[in-house]
Design goal:
Low-confidence stretches: 90-98, 384-389
Order of helices and strands: EEHHHHEHEEEHEEEHEEHHH
Mean pLDDT: 87
Shape: elongated
Largest sheet: 6 strands, mixed
Number of strands: 11
Strand content: 15-25%
Distance between the termini: 57 Å
Radius of gyration: 39 Å
Number of domains: 3
Structural class: alpha+beta
């Protein structure tokens, strides 16, 4: 049983994983692979590997002897090789950590002036009064801004974004938000793109219709009052996500003791780490694509070889049938000739039989592959099968 392990992934066959999941509890096996038990179960289902049922391991520990569900045959050869990508361990991003880069401190003063040109552009791209049903400000038509907050939280969100984008500029990271500003604002680190957005948590509670709404609904039954009432909370969340690999994402939120402003240094450092994680994911994806392409190429070559083998077998069978047909005609001609020599056969019938026998001989030569061996070999080599030769 061969299992290839690299820092980025674990590679094993379908049979290997089947043996492992029936010899080790799923939670322990998932921990050894560096993934969650839910994720490992999804991998097994994707590759058609049966899993032990509920209570299986408890019954095994109690001394019962239980059988295994058989590994079903799989027609798709691409499912036979399994790649498991371990989840990245959560890093300690607190300012007191002794590992990794130093976390800088980014101050966001209450009276901070908005100076970054992109943040000023975001401010101009927001409407002043138009809000969605949740009470969050809308962007102007045709604009896409990284901000979904209530009017009360706009200025604070702008100060946070201004401080963060200025720090990104100081760290020599690129920012991309081209005209007409209808695409997400992108942070480019190590030539990898990621996007950020600041959102505000909204509380929802069931709407109680007012007397006016109930009276209006009686007159106009098709107009119903809203189902929910929404209230802004002021709690902000900043999300950072890869543009090409959505599974690579991070988020920071306001807490009871720590506000989002205190996390800006961690966010700055995490941008660098996220760029590295995206690059590793891209390399792993490229390698997987190369392996899949190689597997498809091998399958295509095998299909071509099988098709050529089947063609040659069919050609050989046809040649053999033609040889049998020619031999049968010659035997029949010989029998006719022997019968024509009987003294009771009239002379005029003998002449007609002779004509038939001569034509049968020519036809036997025509269909028999032994008559023209060069043509016979060409039929074995070529896919074409012209009538006659």
């Amino acid at each position: 049983m061969e299992v290839h392990v690299t820092p980025e992934k674990v590679t094993l066959t379908r049979t290997d994983l089947y043996q492992k999941v029936w010899s080790t509890p799923l939670q322990k096996l998932a921990k050894a692979f560096g993934v969650s038990d839910v994720g490992l179960a999804k991998v097994c289902r994707r590759h058609q590997i049966p899993l032990p049922g509920r209570g299986y391991w408890a019954r095994i520990q109690s001394g019962q002897e239980l059988g295994r569900s058989a590994l079903p045959a799989c027609k798709d050869p691409s499912l036979d090789t399994i790649h498991i990508y371990p989840s990245e361990k959560k890093r300690d991003c607190s300012p007191h950590t002794n590992e990794g880069p130093e976390i800088p401190t980014i101050h966001v003063a209450e009276d901070r002036q908005i100076t970054h040109p992109l943040v000023r552009r975001i401010e101009r791209s927001l409407t002043q009064k138009s809000k969605n049903e949740r009470g969050l400000l809308l962007a102007r038509k045709g604009k896409l801004v990284p901000l979904r907050v209530s009017p009360e939280a706009v200025q604070r969100s702008m100060r946070i974004l201004d401080a963060l984008l200025c720090a990104l500029d100081d760290a020599k990271h690129r920012l991309g938000w081209p005209k007409p500003y209808d695409t997400p604002l992108k942070i480019i680190v190590l030539d990898e793109q990621m996007q950020l957005i600041v959102t505000e948590a909204v509380e929802r509670k069931e709407h109680k219709p007012t007397k006016e709404e109930m009276a209006r609904q009686k007159l106009q039954p098709w107009q119903r009052p809203p189902q929910w009432d929404y209230a802004s909370t002021g709690r902000l969340k900043l999300s950072l996500e890869s543009c090409d690999f959505p599974s690579i994402r991070h988020a920071w939120t306001d807490g009871k003791r720590r506000r989002l402003e205190a996390s800006l240094g961690e966010i700055l450092v995490e941008c660098e780490r996220t760029g590295q994680a995206i690059k590793r994911a891209r390399e792993a994806h490229t390698e997987a694509e190369r392996r899949w392409a190689e597997e498809r190429r091998r399958q295509a070559e095998a299909a071509i070889r099988k098709a050529e083998y089947d063609r040659k077998a069919a050609a050989l069978e046809k040649l053999a049938r033609s040889w049998q047909e020619g031999k049968l005609i010659r035997d029949f001609s010989a029998a006719l000739r022997a019968s024509s020599k009987d003294a009771t056969v009239p002379d005029d019938l003998k002449m007609e039989l002779e004509t038939l026998i001569n034509w049968a001989g020519r036809h036997a030569d025509y269909v028999c592959p032994l008559t023209d061996l060069k043509w016979t070999v060409s039929q074995f080599k070529s896919a074409a099968w012209p009538y006659g030769h």
